[in-house]
């Protein structure tokens, strides 16, 4: 029997309304997008600010301290890395103080990420588009105070940059490093993803317009991230690890294959 695909329930907050056929609420799809993003945009409100929310680029990874063997299709938390005295960390710290039982614990946050996979050039500028993958999560952020969970999150986030990088780096962290770094744990309330793939979708009247077809180039411009050859430091005395060269090769190969396959759907 196949495993049931878990989804975030549709709510007023996370339901995709525009082009809803492109939406996905599957935990595996959303968590994969989050974990494959080098930067996450994290939005929150500050009590002393104007009407504008604050948005910060941060790094983070989905995981479960209580269930380390959980996979991307399981309910997970989002761990975010930050400086100990940053405004967001201070807000999360104050938001984690005891509240009434009817109130949510933690700082309300919205996390968004996106990948552009192709530029879609149609006959009419109104039919131009992108191939893309995007995901949004909504949750409440609290400061991680347990040392074991903090180390778990630091290793998780570091290995999200390059696999196995935590073990391959100098260990253990110094007390100063631990004190200057804070980790936020976002308990996810809901989320959704949205995808666009395929080629050009021209209107019928443009397809039948011989003059336009003879004057306008139409097609797909693939866009994919690529990591260049590793550049060692001037003081480096170690050969580039296999974990790094394998990561670079696999990252480039997988990104290109995905983008080209998506353009042909």
Fold blueprint:
Layout (H helix, E strand, L loop, with lengths): L22 E2 L2 H9 L4 E5 L9 E5 L1 E4 L13 E7 L3 H9 L11 E15 L7 E15 L3 H15 L3 H4 L6 H6 E16 L7 H4 L2 H6 L3 E4 L19 H22 L2
Antiparallel strand pairs: 1-8, 2-3, 2-6, 4-5, 5-8, 6-7, 6-9, 7-8
CATH class type: Mainly Beta
Provide the residue-averaged pLDDT. 92
Q: Could you estimate the helical fraction of the residues in percent?
A: 25-40%
- Structural class comes to alpha+beta
Q: Radius of gyration, Cα only, in angstroms?
A: 22 Å
Q: Helix-strand pattern, N to C? A: EHEEEEHEEHHHEHHEH
Relevant CATH superfamily: Electron Transport, Fmn-binding Protein, Chain A
What proportion of the residues form beta strands (DSSP E)? 25-35%
Number of helices: 8
Largest sheet: 9 strands, antiparallel
CATH topology, by name, is Pnp Oxidase, Chain A
Low-confidence stretches: 99-103
Which architecture does the CATH hierarchy give at level 2?
Answer: Roll
Q: How far is the first residue's CA from the last residue's CA?
A: 29 Å
Shape: globular
User: Count the strands?
Assistant: 9
Total domain modules: 1
